[in-house]
Amino acid sequence: MADLAESGVVREVAGRPGQVGRPSLRVEPVSESAVVVAFDLRVESTVVALVGLGGEELWRREQEHARAKYTAKVAVKNLLSLTRQALRRAPEDAAWVGIGIAVPGIVDHADGLVRFAPNLGWVDVPLGALLREAISAEYGFVPHLAISNDADLGALAEHVRGVGADNRNLIYLSGEVGIGGGVIIDGRPMLGAGGFGGEVGHMVVNPAGVECRCGATGCWETVIGRDALVRAAGLKKDHATVEDVIAAAASGSERARRALEEAGDWLGIGLANLVNVFNPEVIVLGGHLRLLHPFASDAVDRHVLTAVPAAREQVRIEVPALSGDSPLLGAAEAAFDALLADPISVIADVAHASAS
Amino acid sequence: MADLAESGVVREVAGRPGQVGRPSLRVEPVSESAVVVAFDLRVESTVVALVGLGGEELWRREQEHARAKYTAKVAVKNLLSLTRQALRRAPEDAAWVGIGIAVPGIVDHADGLVRFAPNLGWVDVPLGALLREAISAEYGFVPHLAISNDADLGALAEHVRGVGADNRNLIYLSGEVGIGGGVIIDGRPMLGAGGFGGEVGHMVVNPAGVECRCGATGCWETVIGRDALVRAAGLKKDHATVEDVIAAAASGSERARRALEEAGDWLGIGLANLVNVFNPEVIVLGGHLRLLHPFASDAVDRHVLTAVPAAREQVRIEVPALSGDSPLLGAAEAAFDALLADPISVIADVAHASAS
Q1: Which of B202, B273, B280 sits opposite A203 (nearest CB)?
Q2: Are B96 and B143 in contact (CB under 8 A)?
Q3: Does domain B163-320 have CATH number 3.90.1150.10?
Q4: Phi/psi of residue B218, each to 5°?
Q5: Would you tell me which CATH number, out of the four given (3.50.50.60, 3.30.420.40, 3.30.565.10, 3.90.550.10), belongs to the domain A34-152+325-355?
Q6: Taking the complete model, does pTM exceed 0.90, yes or no?
Q7: Cβ–Cβ < 8 Å for A304, A268
Q8: CB contact (8 A) between residue B303 and residue A193
Q9: Tell me: the pLDDT tens digits for B321-351?
Q10: What CA–CA distance (Å, rounded) separates A173 from A112?
Q11: How many interchain CB pairs under 8 A, A with B?
């Protein structure tokens, strides 16, 4: 804490106005003192934000991209250009201490190697190494770079600042084209042998169903993923979204209504599985699952009631406190990690590098 | 360690015979110095063992019971009688430091309340309190009492002394009438909010299938549990076992052969789910699943190959090193916990209580 104060990234302030009794000092982060650039790399768009210490979004932008053409090379060029735009919004004298990226796939944390992102068509893409090279060429240094699975980062953000702030056992589900999962067990991210745990979207729930992009049949994402919903609703439009399915149901499409109902049923079946397997305090429905929830809550309740009693009594099903930005803010949180672990040396590194 | 040596439960011994160089001292547990009574409370039998420090089974017996008549009252009477029999085999001067019980159901660790053991028909049975009362009436004191889920204890034993001794992420599956799961994450038991995690037998994999005892439809145990296998094989015999199904297939029953094949397929589907969800280093097939494995290994390999690549590369599927006794030896391990945490006071308690 003394290190943080000395480096100017936190300040001591008096207790809240209106507080009675002797005013106590509180420590609060100085949001403008240090910033990170955070990305939520989605399948059909990239969200970028400049985030201050403490989690404040100082600037945010979403940019669409064509899924089929979004190769690693295109992605790196795009990330570099968005980094430039973000840094132009940085407060004067702010230290740029990190880049955080949420990726819809399986990532090797140590070096930012994307092992498998089926909905982007990426296999063993060295995103970390490529971006490091590009950032270094542009800025002459590379700040702390944190690349992780989007759902893992969503779980982190909701655990640190969201609906799971008081809970030690949390699951965050990212609903986008596919379904990802991030799991916090006893207050710590569940990594598994190689950091690849939590791939609940590929839990087989409907073996009589359709083939998944991963090669298995009847994965959870084949029945509650966005493409599954759009297909079941019979929408012909390019780039149709879950919002489109909901709109179609609202304007009387029986097929869209049935698609939502069936997806709600499958959502409930998978959630009951997670309750039985993990006995969590809270499951957070991120991405499009939070849109699906109002149409699915009866089915969800019905299925979760079939989970083993002791576990079902303890679980809450929630939508994210951070709305659609949980993975983005989790990426920011991870990008700040190095600063919080060793503030003086990170600030010094950045200052030194900026000056060079 | 000094405490343990002083209390006589470990001794220093010279290095192994044949060892070259200066002989080093090793510490080894004195198996006869302290004992526990361990139980594996199965659905149709109770296994009891007198276990010495270090995990040696000094005496072991299995006693069958009628499933329908096995109420909590009957169970407690039975456990007390088997405790008497076990203690008669205890080495002279051995300290009796604990009782450990593996239960096929969901248990509140703190007080040994069995919340739900569907295959015994037990709901909220205060096994811990009842047994404490009975032991106290008989012996005038109660040693450390550890009651846990059978699969959780199987996982503990295989992690401490079995096929997962070198691994930090392990899943143990108990195949009996139902299917239980014990999960070790990063070297620690995964408890979840209330200690009820790991109920993988109630993961729904076949929603078009049959109703489970738990009330849901198509749980994993409805397709790989013992009763499911016996039914699919068309065996009419009372108390038929998985061994009977295997024998029927070996003597030419096409129906039994197909039952084994189908169960193998479902085993593979569920294992792939666990690989995706947990990214474990090893999954241990306990109980009858180890008998099923030779007939299922092709199907298991085929399904596990559909798990996400990074996770499937890291997993081994194994049979238990401790054979059918992993839950029993895990119960012994848990019963020794108090001794290992505070040897002097536990030994003193027992000596005082025995003398009183």
Answers
A1: B273
A2: yes
A3: no
A4: 80, 25
A5: 3.30.420.40
A6: no
A7: yes
A8: no
A9: 998 899 999 999 999 988 877 777 777 667 6
A10: 21
A11: 159
Domain B32-152+325-355 has what CATH class? alpha beta
Coil, strand or helix at A68 = coil
Q: Give the ipTM of the model, two decimals please.
A: 0.87
CA angle A265, A227, A244 (to 5 degrees): 85
Distance from CA of A299 to the nearest CA of B (A): 13
| Distance of residue A302 Cα from the nearest chain B Cα, in angstroms | 10
pLDDT tens digits along A81-116: 999 999 999 998 889 999 999 999 889 888 899 998
Query: H-type helices in chain A, by residue range?
Result: 2-6, 72-88, 127-139, 150-161, 221-224, 226-233, 242-250, 254-278, 289-304, 309-312, 326-341, 343-355
Contact A169 B108 (CB under 8 A): no
Q: Which helix (H) or strand (E) holds B45?
A: strand B45-52
Task: Convert the pLDDT of each residue in B66-109 to its tens digit.
Answer: 888 899 999 999 999 999 999 999 998 889 999 999 999 889 88
Interface with chain A: mutation pick from B114, B170, B185, B196, highest number of A CBs within 10 Å: B196
Q: Which residues of chain B does A168 touch, with a Cβ-Cβ cutoff of 8 Å? A: 193
Domain parsing of chain B, residue ranges: 32-152+325-355, 163-320
- Is the CB of residue A349 less than 8 Å from the CB of residue A98? no
Would the CB atoms of B199 and A276 count as touching at under 8 Å? yes
- Residues of B within 8 A of A215 (CB-CB) are 306
Tokens of A212: 């998944």
Q: Which of B277, B275, B282, B278 is nearest to B172 (CA)?
A: B282
